[in-house]
């Protein structure tokens, strides 16, 4: 009779102390709050400006006009020896985005607004920052620089620091309902030293 080998315990990677300090220590919550509010304000003001545009070229009777002009400009940047827009993205713009310009117009305007509101409130901060970065990436792929590189970098940081970026926000009370944090009302222990009861590695 043969005996089966014991089931191996899956290996886990220990998080470096510097990573825990930067991305999981509530003592840095004020710094993350500043970054979060800045990025949130930028998205909120951009979305609000589109939704309340008096010409209605983003949301309203003429929805799709502004985004069509933007997308046609992106296609124009895809030609020449050194194009600003990659050929595959130009194909996506021509065959997917432009035929549905009205839908994309609403998605951009309300997407920017919702990302801004969520970041300012600290509500699902990591998810909101991810979608903000996704918008930035699309604007960059379409050949628009402006503030997109900076906002994309900050959005990436907020995604990395999602555990503490919303600590001074609604995440502190909402995330525990999803099993993300065990003790929402207590400050985490020193991230450099293991907490009492943690296994010794």
UniProtKB/TrEMBL annotation:
Keywords: Membrane, Oxidoreductase, Transmembrane, Transmembrane helix. GO terms for cellular component: membrane. Its main location: membrane. InterPro entries: DoxX. It is found in: Membrane. It holds the Pfam family DoxX. The keyword Protein biosynthesis does not apply. It is a multi-pass membrane protein. The chain crosses the membrane at residues 113-137, 149-170. Its EC number is 1.8.5.2. The keyword RNA-binding does not apply. One of its GO terms (molecular function) is thiosulfate dehydrogenase (quinone) activity. This is DoxX family protein. It comes from Deinococcus radiopugnans ATCC 19172.
């Amino acid at each position: 009779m043969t005996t089966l080998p014991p089931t191996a315990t899956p290996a886990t990677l220990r998080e470096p102390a510097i990573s825990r300090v930067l991305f999981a220590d509530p003592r840095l919550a004020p710094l993350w709050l500043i970054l979060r509010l800045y990025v949130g304000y930028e998205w909120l003001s951009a979305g609000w400006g589109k939704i309340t545009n008096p010409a209605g070229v983003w949301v309203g009777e003429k929805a799709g006009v502004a985004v069509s002009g933007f997308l046609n400009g992106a296609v124009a940047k895809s030609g020449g020896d050194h194009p600003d827009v990659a050929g595959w993205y130009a194909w996506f713009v021509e065959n997917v985005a432009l035929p549905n310009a009205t839908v994309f117009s609403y998605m951009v305007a309300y997407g920017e607004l919702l990302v801004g509101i969520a970041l300012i409130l600290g509500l699902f901060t990591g998810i909101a920052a991810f979608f903000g970065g996704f918008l930035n990436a699309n604007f960059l792929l379409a050949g628009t620089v402006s503030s997109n590189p900076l906002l994309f970098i900050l959005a990436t940081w907020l995604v990395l620091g999602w555990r503490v970026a919303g600590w001074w926000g609604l995440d502190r009370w909402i995330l525990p309902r999803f099993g993300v944090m065990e003790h929402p009302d207590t400050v985490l222990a020193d991230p450099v030293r293991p907490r009492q009861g943690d296994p010794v590695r």
